[in-house]
Structures are given as structure tokens and as C-alpha cells.
Automatic annotation (TrEMBL), chain A:
<dbReference type="GO" id="GO:0048038">
    <property type="term" value="F:quinone binding"/>
</dbReference>
<feature type="transmembrane region" description="Helical">
    <location>
        <begin position="134"/>
        <end position="159"/>
    </location>
</feature>
<keyword id="KW-0812">Transmembrane</keyword>
<keyword id="KW-0874">Quinone</keyword>
<protein>
    <recommendedName>
        <fullName>NADH-quinone oxidoreductase subunit J</fullName>
        <ecNumber>7.1.1.-</ecNumber>
    </recommendedName>
</protein>
<keyword id="KW-0520">NAD</keyword>
<keyword id="KW-1003">Cell membrane</keyword>
TrEMBL record, chain B:
<feature type="region of interest" description="Disordered">
    <location>
        <begin position="89"/>
        <end position="144"/>
    </location>
</feature>
<feature type="compositionally biased region" description="Basic and acidic residues">
    <location>
        <begin position="89"/>
        <end position="99"/>
    </location>
</feature>
<protein>
    <submittedName>
        <fullName>Uncharacterized protein</fullName>
    </submittedName>
</protein>
<feature type="compositionally biased region" description="Basic and acidic residues">
    <location>
        <begin position="112"/>
        <end position="131"/>
    </location>
</feature>
TrEMBL record, chain C:
<dbReference type="GO" id="GO:0009060">
    <property type="term" value="P:aerobic respiration"/>
</dbReference>
<feature type="transmembrane region" description="Helical">
    <location>
        <begin position="145"/>
        <end position="163"/>
    </location>
</feature>
<feature type="transmembrane region" description="Helical">
    <location>
        <begin position="7"/>
        <end position="30"/>
    </location>
</feature>
<keyword id="KW-1133">Transmembrane helix</keyword>
<dbReference type="GO" id="GO:0003954">
    <property type="term" value="F:NADH dehydrogenase activity"/>
</dbReference>
<dbReference type="GO" id="GO:0005886">
    <property type="term" value="C:plasma membrane"/>
</dbReference>
<keyword id="KW-0472">Membrane</keyword>
Amino acid sequence: MAEAVIFWVCAAGAVATGVAVFRVDSMARATFALLASFVFAATPLLLLGLSYLGVLVILMMIMEMVVMAIFMIMLMMNPAGLMPMSMVHNRRGSLAIAVGTFVVLGAGVLLVDWPQRAGTPPEDVTFALGEALMGSHMLVMLVIGLGLFATIVSAVVLAHPRGRYDRFGDDLRGRPADDPIRGGVGR
Amino acid sequence: MDLMRWSTPRVLVVPVRAGRAVRLDVERLMRERGWESAASPADADLLVVCGTPDADTGAAVDRVWNLLGSPRARADIPVRHGVAERLDRARAELGDRPGRPSGRTSGRRRPAPGDRPDDSDDDTRTDHDGDVAGLPMAERAPDRDGLTLDRLHLTLGPVLPDWPAGLVVRLAVQGDVVQTAAVEVWGEPGGRWDGPPAAAALDSLARLLSVCGAATATRRARRLRDEVLAGSADPAALNRFARRLRRSWTLRWATDGVGRLDGRHGDLTGDATQRCRRWLDVVAGSPPVPGEDRTAAVLTALPGLLEGQELATVRVVVASLDPDLESSGTGATS
Amino acid sequence: MTPVGQGAVWTVLLVPILLGGLALGGASFARVLDARADGRRVTGAVLAAPLSATGRLLVQQRRAVVASDRLLARTGVVLVPVAAVLAALVVPWGNVAASDLSVGIVWFNAMEVVTWAALWMAGWGTNSVWGLVGGYRFVVQGLSYELPHMFALITVATGAGSLRVSDVVAAQDGLWFVVWMPVAFAAFLISALALSFAGPFDTATGRDVAGGVLAEHSGVDRLLLLAGRWLLLAAAAAMAVALFLGGGSGPLLPTWLWTVLKSAAVLGLLVWLRSRTATLRMDRFVEVGWMVLIPLTLLQALVVAVVVLR
């Protein structure tokens, strides 16, 4: 009973805050409405007994959304005030895509012949998850992890206007580096 | 309210040029009574004006006074006579005031001068024409990294804790990076100060330590300054204080490489760390380097040192140069 | 020593009281250090100063700047103390934990990250340049301390073979983790100061930006932020005891008393550090966090992993 109540509160909350993302007129509010929506979506994971995944999703989403708020506001919004703005782009197209996705997923829920549960969940779900990730799927996870990390590093390198020649001079011997702001290690 | 009588007030000290003697008295009494110095109007319940402000500064002080939340009290102390009584009276007034007023008044902040943003074709900025609550919006300009970002106009001083009296710096900032800086001096200077050099050095040090976040060292510097002024300072204690600060690596980290001036600037030469060390030398007993019109040199060098720096650095640069406008010759330039 | 167990439901109500008591003690100690630096006598009024300051803020008028986003600002303000209390739920007091979650360490981390969002909202929402700069500074600080902090937590979990805090305490029966994980302990203490934006990590509320996130908050809002900061520091100190200092284990005295004494000692150490240092500027600390602390904590995790696997 309690589980059902929590689930429906979270479901309604996730949808309501998701709608709020497009109704509020400030980028900061939109970001944190999206964060609230993600947290509502993560709570059912806790109901399923997947406590590690649930807490981890909340943790990662908070960090992610805070960083995203900074970039969104830095690039798109006036820092001096709360300028009214709208998160809606391409109204007709996005409406069509949203309705289409909802219909496909909704139809899937009703039409797919869901399998019956075979066996019982393991005693320690977190441990089972770790074994799955670090056992048979270890190679895949490592490749994905390294791939993501390499993507981040190369994106930063490509985007950064200053390279090592700007920092250390043409012969790469200039020490300390010529940076607009000095770091703490003293390189 | 009883609660207000029981707690120690937090004081926003407004230094005014020619008000040094009053400020020193006020700071000493605050320290002895355990009254804390507030960092912003919202933090304060007591506003203490040290000296007689000119019309511009007076208007700025009045605006800040309106930002203080109730219960609040104000003490204008034009001369050194009866400082303690005036502080006591303000304190009592704070306790007598009825608590929270029924209506919630909003602290109003002066709109920052600035133009409207140019209209942009980015469709997330749909409603960008028109001001928000009567405040003009920031305009945009290229920044340090070659991006076009919003810029905001910001005025530092004349009412700002740990800030030289009479100094006003107008900044255009992007994020917290200063794009342009212009220096003004408000008010008229007072007479020359003939206090001991160690006290002057400790007074300047206290401001620098405070903006560097060294709270305990700030308190100690103010206490030693008051002892030097009272003639009761122990040379060993002064030496110990100077030695300890020279060893502090967190302080060195805050000041290293900040506001570097070349060799033509006399005792201002070097970065904030070097200037801080010179004060420490004076504290420890060595005679001060006689500077010829140090203040004018600071005011000339300041804009160039501030541009391109972050707000954190701005405060350290100003505090490490610490132009002595309280007694120096330069008149108002606003 | 008796193993830590899940307490009854009502013990949840004890958490804010215990945490508040510890936080008040820390705040009083800070006032004592201040008074000594000022050359004032340490009287009862100095010790009670955090309480009287609370009273002062309770009657002070709340204020808001024109066009501020009150919803966001107040949400942020409330979230800071709430996050501290939620984080402390998994901390065992003696041999009772109010909520001994199977993923207690991750929970603690998640709740402490809530302050990132909370402080940013509290700073942004005031529509003041000082608050804005303060909020941004805290996020930079978060990005600098968070990875070493996580690696320190991972090291502890690896050493204990569990994410449950009670298992971590039990695993220290013979040898406290601080002995063979000193780097992780140091990184945890650094991040304890950083996550509670207490000096030397107080750039977000620094005097150079007129109080930063705190600049425009007065009255109850300010009280919640300041109290939240002390509660966070107290929660981190109590967690350090459970993770590194053997929880409530100790001779003669009851376990709950040992927990309190050790937590008070860690908190005292943090407050003392806080008073002895100048604020670390983030343009300096970011590089130290990434170039020094992350490799060191990774090495520590490697050493512990090798020891555990052998």
C-alpha cells in the first residue's frame, strides 16, 4: 500500500515537474525542475530494492544538473537578472515527436507480452550488480568507460583555444607557464 | 526585543576620509565588547559611520542604511568625542525597537547603470525587451577567452567592509572577471596621521588579512594595533605575530603573484606577498620606507592591475596596496 | 564490541538533536578561539554566543532584493540543514544507527552533494552579484574536492568490503582504518571542511565578496544557512569517526560516549584548522585537487585494494 502511494506520488511528481520545465520562465528554475523530475524518477528504483542504483542516480543527477545549470545560464542567460525566457523551441515538431514517442511507448506497455519472473532476486542486489559489471561484462564496461573519458578529454582539447605552445612558448621551455590565472601547483 | 539585548550586535563600519581616529576607536570598542564586523548590509543590525561624510558618500550611506533589515540602529560619529556613549545609545536603541514590522519591506538595491541587451536571434531569449522590475539589463561584450558574454556594472565602495575609506572603484565584470576598472576618490582628506608606523602597518594588514579570509589573524592584528596605539604592545608579541604570518602558506597562496608592480614603485614594488612582508617588517620594528606620494602612485596603477583579474584578486590587490586616503593629500576626483 | 545495529524508528528523531548539540559545541569552540584572538575573557556569554546569535536572527527581518527568485533562494536555504540531517541518518552513534542502509556510504555522499544545488540556488536566487559569484565558487570547489572525497569513501568501502556503515565499523575491530588509510583520512578531513564551506574553504561566503551566498540573506534564511553549515561540519566529523576512527570502540567508556568524544575531537580539530588558515582561492585549489589529491587518493585506493585482495 505504502509502496503504491509512493510510486504514484513520484509518478505524478515526475510528470508535473517535467511539465514545469517548459512552463517556468527562468533557466535556473527550468534546470531545477528537471532535477526534481529526475529525482522523482529515481525513487521508484529504491522501491524496487535497487538502493545502490537509486541513490547513485540521485547523486549523479544533482551533480550533473548543477553543472548544466552553470553552462546553460552562462551561455544563454543574463547573469544580472532573472530575464523571462522560454524553454520551448520548434513547438510543432517537438509536439509531434513527444506525442509519437508517448504513443509508441504506451503501446509497447500494453502490447508486449511481458515474461514471467523466473527465479528470485539475489540476496544482495548491489553485490550482484558489481559481479555482473566486473565479471562477464567487464570488457564492455571498461571499453565504454575509456571511450567516454577519451571523448571528454578530446572535446575539451578541441574546444580550448590555448594549447601548450601558448602556455610554454614555441620551444616549450617557458617556465612558469604563461596563464591568465595561476594555478596552485606552481607549474 | 529581549533577544536583541542579549546578543552582540553585528556592525557595518563605514569608514569616511578624515575619520580615521573615530574608526580606530570604534574598532577597538567593538573588539573589546565582542561586537562582530558585518560583511554586508543584510548581515548587519548596526550601522556606524566613522567621520563626517561628504554629500555623495552620505547619500550612499543612506542607501545602505535602507538595506538593513529591522531591528536596526545607526550611529553617526563625526568626532572622536564620546564614541563609547554613541555606540551604547545605538545598542540600546536596537534593544528597544519593537521586533519585526508587520509588512515585509524589500531592501531596494540601486539599479546598476547599463544599457539594455541587444536583441538576439536566439529563440530561448524570447521576451528580452523591457526591464525586469525597473532594472536595466546587462549588455554583452567579448570576454577574456574570446566568447561574447554578458557584462555587469559593479561599484565597489564607498561602503564596503575592509575597504579603504573614500575609494570607489567602478568595474565592468563578466562572471567574476573584471573587464574595465575606473578609480574615483570621494570626500576630503583629513590631517596627517602621526601615529606609530607599526600601528599603521597593522591597520593595513588587518584589512588584507580579512579579505584573504584569515579571520583569526585579522583579530590578532587589530588587537596588536590597539595595543601599539595604547603604548602597551609587547615587542616579543609583535615579533611572534610577524613570524607566524611569514610562515603561513595559506596566506602566501592568497597573495603570491597578485598585483605585481615593477621596481619604479618604491615600497609598492613586487606582488601582494612582498608588500605584506614589508608591513610585517615594520610591525617587527624596522623603520618604514619613506614613500613619496604613495597614494597617488596607487591610484594611477590600480586600474591596470585590476583589469583581467577575478573579483577575489581585486579585493586582495586593493587591500595590499591600501591607498591611505584618510590623511593623504589627494582631493575628491569624482 | 557489540556490532552496530539498526535502531528503532524513533531514533531518527534523535539524529537532529545529537547533530545539533555537536554543531553547537563546535560553534561555541569557534567563538572561544575568536575571543582569545581578540584578547577578551572567555565568559558564559561567549560560550552561549551561538545561541544568542540564533535568537538575534530569529527576530531579524527577512529581506529580498528586487526581482530575486525567492522560490529558488528559499528552497536552497532550507535544503542545506535538511541535507546535513539526512546525511547524518546513516552515522552510527555508539552501536545504534538511526538508519543503517545497505548503501550508507553512497547515501552520505548523495546527501552531501545536495548542498551543491542548495548553495547555488541560495546564491543565484538573491539576484545579487555577490550571491551569484559565491554560488559559482561553491560549484568550482565541489568539482575540486568531490573526486578525492569519493575516492576516500571508495577506499573505506574497499577496506571493509561493504557500503554499509555498520560493516565498516565492524571491519575496524582490530585496526582502525586511519592507521592504514592515512591519505584517505586526510582527504576526507579536507573535503569535510570543503563540503561544509567552512574556512579555509569558505570562498563561497568569503568577506572578499561581501559574504557571497550569505550576502543578501538575513533573519531566518541566514540562520538556516549558518546552522546548516555547522550541521554539515558536525555530520562530516561524526562520519569520519565511523569511517576511520573505529566508531564507538574504546576501553572502559560506553560506545555512545566514545562516539561523541571522538566526534567532538575531530570537530575540534576541524574548527582549529579553520581558525588558523586563510581562505584557499579556488583558482589555486582546483589544480591541487586534480593534480595532487586525486592521484594520491587513487594510489591509496590501489594500496588498500591490493591488501584486501591478497
